[in-house]
Amino acid sequence: MRISWWTSVIVWQFADFTLGDQVVLQDDRHQAARPHNVAIIGAGAAGASSAYHLAQYAAAAGIPVNITVFERNDYVGGRTTTVTAYNSSDHPIELGGSIFIEKNRILFEAAKAFNLTTSSASLSSRSSDIPGPALGIWDGQQFVVTQNNEGGWWDTAKLLYKYGLAPIRTLRLMRATTEKFFQMYDAPIFPFSSLTQAASDVGLLAVTSATGEQFLRESNIGYLFAREIIQASTRVNYAQNLDHIHALETIVCMAVEGAMAVEDGNWQIFDRMVEESNATLLLNTPVKSLDHDASSGIYTLHTGSDSTSNFSTLILAHPFQYSSLTSLPSTLHTPSKIDYVTLHVTLFTSPHLLSSRFFGLAPDKPAPHAVLTTLPEGEHAPDRKTVGTPGFYSVSLLRQVTNPATGAQEFAYKIFAPSPSTSLFIARLLGIQLSSSGELKPEDVTWLYRKEWQSYPYEVPRRQFEQINLGEGAWYTAGIEGFVSTMETSALMGKNVGRLVVDQWIAEEKRMRGDHEARSN
């Protein structure tokens, strides 16, 4: 979804983007040295950010570097990607990471530096001539909240009337919590060699070790607001309910002012990062296995029939359990497997609006453009995978589109659900009849695209996070996904690893220089 706080992936960051005050410039003795050869496995947000920031930190330090990025897909961006409605480049739709905000400075400043055009993803950016409220929150039985285009979550009297001070307390809680997180982008916390230690240093382990439900209750946020508003947000953003998702990710869902997206796809940020790093990009190149010579410190990567060696630094920039690697060398720590959400995304276009009847509304009362879901009063999720009575997490009318074959105005939709959206479900959702063979009629659903993602981890409460350094010259970015899983935080970890790598090179060179001078004396 590309609307304010209920978008599919919330991304944010609050650090300074500049490099000059972070790396001490070195003298020209680096220039005579052989370049450091770096292999990055994965060209998603973390891999692209690793390449981009490592290249900048190395250049600022005067260290020559050769970067090779291995990507098994035929595109850059990982889970940040677009597809085209009607198979027309005029109608790109975000399939993965959908929005970021101005305080997401890695993404925001990169988009600005690359001259990428951004557009608003707020309620007010929707077409006002489409009948019906802009938003509704449905518990499978009734709409507990509806909102028109004009209102905002924090300035509407309707919310205050229904929920008392809970919205204000939530806003204050969000700001207090994110202020702690902001510290992770600046010295003395950044760069951090241990995510667990960094989280402890800024006071966030108490937040990640509690459920959202516990944290909100202890913060005097009323149950009604938590269930009807905040849980709708955790479900649409992370497919998880408040009594299972940890509190930091819960708060992240509420920090979304100024939502925006890059026109034609957010993937362009990461594509340009790789390009600007001057890395060698190898698409359609899965790394099947790798070897590590402990005596020389050299890594050899095997990509099917080919092998590429002479890498002294390795960055594994995607979740290990979903890589093409089945194991790591015994000299390296193997990241633990964590449970990821299997999210089914369905995109389609249709001339029909959402059915009032499906949601139990009167025929003359249009359904909301975007419908988020929560659990009904008294229903609790027995486990972290429970979708509950509503049966899906959200459905959103993204925007009006023009069918290139007919010239007719239609609507583009996105559904998030725990299982594939069947033809029958889509027909009920639109209030239409299936064909005699039980299929959607092409005049009713003019384009359809389904995708299954391992979209983000189940953000269960935790106090320990995966280590960043896996061994000699080997680094891992995906541990941050159990802390906060967003495009921006993956980019943050990529930037953090880039800085750690260059800092290590500088330290090694100083040590070697000291040893040489000692021998000379």
Automatic annotation (TrEMBL):
Signal peptide: 1-20
Molecular-function GO terms, alphabetical: prenylcysteine oxidase activity
Keyword Iron: no
Record key words, sorted: FAD, Flavoprotein, Glycoprotein, Oxidoreductase, Signal
All copies of domain Prenylcysteine lyase, residue ranges: 150-510
InterPro entries: FAD/NAD-bd_sf (IPR036188), Prenylcys_lyase (IPR010795), Prenylcysteine_Oxase1 (IPR017046)
Keyword Acetylation: no
Pfam family, one: Prenylcys_lyase
Cofactors that this protein relies on: FAD
Single GO biological process annotation from the record: prenylated protein catabolic process
Recorded family membership: Belongs to the prenylcysteine oxidase family.
Full protein name: Prenylcysteine lyase domain-containing protein
Source organism of the structure: Cryoendolithus antarcticus
